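Before going further, learn to read the protein records used in this course. Taken together, the tokens spell out the fold as the letters spell out the chain. A record is reproduced here so that you can trace the correspondence yourselves:

***
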Amino acid sequence: MCGIEVFLGCDGHHASVLMGAFCAAFTKGLVAHRGPDDSSLEAVSTLGWGFRRRMIQGLDVGSNEPLHLGPLTLVCNGEIYNHHELKAAHGDWKIQTHNDCEVILHLYATYGIQGTMRRLDGEFAFVLHDAVTGSLFMARDHLGVRPLYSGEVCVEGKMEDSHGVDESIKNDDDEEYNNHFMTVGFLAASELEGLTGVELPPGYLLVNPKQLEPRKVYCFVDNEPSYFPFTYTRLPRFVKGKAPDHKVLKELLYEEVRKRVSPKNRDVSCCFTLSGGLDSTLVTYVGVDILTKEFGVDPATIRAYCVGKEESPDLAAARQVAAHLGIDLKEVMVSDEDMLGMIDVAIRRGGTFCRTTIRAMCPHLLVAKAIAEDTLADGSKPIVVLSGEVADEIWGSYAYFAKAPSPDALAKEGTKLAEEIHLADGLRADRSIAAFGLELRVPYSGKAFVDYVLSLDPVVKVFPHDNHSACDCVAYEKEPIRQAFVGCLPDAVLWRRKNGMSDAVSSSERSWVDGLLAWIDGQVKDEEVPDGFTKERFYYAKRFYDIFCAGRPAGEQAFAACLKPGHTLRHMDGKFDLGAFLALNRDRLYEWMPNPAWCPGATDPSGRQGLADVCLAD
């Protein structure tokens, strides 16, 4: 895990000034939390490379990035789990470091960029420059486990005032913008605070041609120019009649966990987040089984962490799992006040004001903080954290899926959520863990596992809600994988129903969400709230504006991180106040909500809000 910042200048007149500004900005440490072990800064001509490193593999300075191979330069935030296999298959490669990401350079030199993407197995976001062709490549793993933002560097002035900038970088959709700002460079960064920009979508590759024209990127599909040109991987459609093979499901999950806990893929200690829910419980069970049986680890030295208020259902379930496995459970007890204190951190690190993300991110940040401050029995620090995200999206197991009108509709909605997970739970998990210098690893995101689950006939995923009459469907959400692990865990845990994180960390006496909404009610007056906003969403949006937008020139507004898929950023000239920000982005910015066609009238995503007969999960 690391933090990256890259600058590419495309205007010689401004290059030296902008490079100086880039270097100065990097030293401010905007992404330093993602790489507390070391940092590197290289500036060559119109290219600047900033890298903050958390040492996971290759605990030596020789493995620091940027990495170089002849005319190639690379920075990568990620883990390449098949790097040993790739090296073994290419004996002629001259490996120079212990950094697993070095194989990306050798793959590119051997196969080109498309061949590189087809051969990688991991969680990654990288930027690669080829000095021979002048091309700059940006790529992100298939589900966006690792973040990457891209954006333009703009200065005030009309396009015709620019020096050496090709006219083709104009924004053809925004003539007003062209009359006031000109693009003179290009940025990439791991988090929104590092730049103004939009997220590179998961499974995409952005290519900058030799002319260094940020808006003229090449498309490998039908050769049509597009801002995000090449989808190198696509989520599969289901196969009618394909039934789950419990043995295959189990083996696939074992393989994905094995990649992530194996000492060959880490030189630091690992741990687990354990809510006692099905997803994190299965990851922890498999991880403990592998570590003890294959690597001889004493289970009593394996630590898992659970966060919750006193008497929360998560804490009770996690205790049962830990006792069954014989592992060490650290309980992170929190209060409403503790979680309220994390709101601004969640907005800053998450780059979002999605309600469900912030609600769940507040306790997630607190458990991440506890992990970062902890020391294991052997004196080491837990750095690699395994978690259970992605399972709910690919199985379609949020409670509102019980309202799906058909198996086909369930499959479509699940794939949609998987494609958008980098804007919701995926974002929450990565930013929370990375905020304290830890590395998140997500076994359910493994491409082989994802592809298999999404390929199943969705009829095996349909489940009834408790208030529904009997129907021709399975009894529980995720029933196939539950069946695959029968006999491995106590039934009370294996068959525990899905709970949203915001609800499951709460006590039986009072929900965290109820306390949060009551607190916000005291912070915001009714007359302040514009149309289309609840008090809660308005409060988060206002804090987002204060953190990212207030006091910045219009051309530097940083609010595109949570744009809905397919929406574009519109710049504004002159004063960009809170009212303009809200009016411009009310319907553009991503907000996780249940499918409105299935849950008409729903205005709040939490099951605590009494939405008809469906318990909605955060």
Residues 272 and 303 are 7 Å apart (CA to CA). The chain has three domains: 2-231, 246-396+414-453+490-512, 518-609. The two ends are 26 Å apart (CA to CA). The first helix runs from residue 12 to 27.
